[in-house]
UniProtKB/TrEMBL annotation:
It is found in: Cell membrane. Keywords: Cell membrane, Membrane, Transmembrane, Transmembrane helix. The lineage of its organism: Bacteria, Bacillati, Actinomycetota, Actinomycetes, Streptosporangiales. It is a multi-pass membrane protein. Belongs to the UPF0410 family. The keyword Cell membrane applies. InterPro entries: Transgly_assoc. The keyword Cell membrane applies. It comes from Nonomuraea wenchangensis. This is Transglycosylase associated protein. GO terms for cellular component: plasma membrane. The chain crosses the membrane at residues 6-23, 30-54, 66-84.
Length: 98
């Protein structure tokens, strides 16, 4: 159980970071939000790969990882378009300096 949680966090961090790297421009997202997007993308990507029958392959499962990264890119785009950013410390779109 603990191993699965640690694996989900590590894979989520990698997938989320790759998703942010592939989205052009600056994303106003915290590390925690990047991690959440990555974990969700990894879980949904694994479910999609399982449904397609490509989840269990020998060696590195490139198809599953590509699905996860594409979902992370979509997640990063959705989060940045919705204006969810750094929370209390950061400025969101539409605010003006005082």
């Amino acid at each position: 159980m603990i191993g699965a949680i640690v694996s989900a966090v590590i894979i989520g961090a990698i997938v989320g970071a790759l998703g942010r790297l592939l989205v052009p421009g600056k994303q106003n997202m915290s590390i925690g939000l990047t991690l959440i997007v990555g974990i969700v993308a990894a879980l949904i990507g694994t479910a999609i790969a399982s449904a397609l029958g490509v989840a269990n392959t020998r060696g590195i499962n490139w198809i599953e990882h590509i699905i996860q990264i594409v979902l992370a890119v979509i997640g990063v785009l959705l989060v940045t378009r919705m204006g969810i950013g750094r929370g209390r410390g950061g400025r969101s779109r539409g605010t003006t300096a005082r």
